[in-house]
Amino acid sequence: MQAVADVIEFPDPAAHEAAEELRAITAAAGGDRRAFEGLYRRHVGQVHGLCLRLTGHRQTAEDCVQEAFVSAWRALPTFETRSTFSTWLHRIAVNTVTSRHRGLARAFEATGETDARELDRRTAEDAPPIDLEAAIAGLPDGARHVLVLVGLYGFSHAEAARELGIAVGTSKAQLHRARQLLAARLDLNAEAS
After folding, report:
1. How far is the CA of 173 from the CAs of 148, 185, 188, in angstroms?
2. Domain 1-126 classified CATH 1.10.1740.10?
3. How many whole angstroms separate alpha carbon 161 and alpha carbon 156?
4. What confidence tens digit (pLDDT) does each residue in 140-189 have?
5. Which of 51, 74, 132, 159 is 20 to 30 A (C-alpha) from 96?
6. CA 26/CA 108 separation, integer angstroms
7. What is this structure's pTM?
């Protein structure tokens, strides 16, 4: 049986790329590691950026990227094309970050420590980020997660709320809080005058 991308001519490069990606997804879901490697190379940059912004720490983000792609490989046979592959992969990455954070919080509760983010800070060996990245990384988790998903990645509040396990109103409040905190940290009000 000939693949769809081989039979149809695509005058639109985006349509051709989408058909190529669908062929790679189908092959990878069938166990083709090279096809999955191609998908990995195509999407790793975006997933890493998302994880880095959500965690605020390079090493933690790299760990989350690795975990997300392992999860994606395992779940690929269940992927349905109702959403794009990148959307599906981003959801896996968000779930990986939030699950990791919950696990760290439980570990700190068990040891009597109070700030789960401190573990990430202790293990990260990052170069100092640019001011905006540092300001985003310094936001409280809830505000940072909503800011990244809604403000940077264009999720709707309903999508962000579903991914983070919070109410839509909480998502809106967290975005407002994140913007206020960023404005204060970057001293935007002083520059506007």
Report:
1. 14, 18, 20
2. yes
3. 8
4. 989 999 998 888 888 899 988 988 889 999 999 999 999 888 888 777 65
5. 132
6. 41
7. 0.60
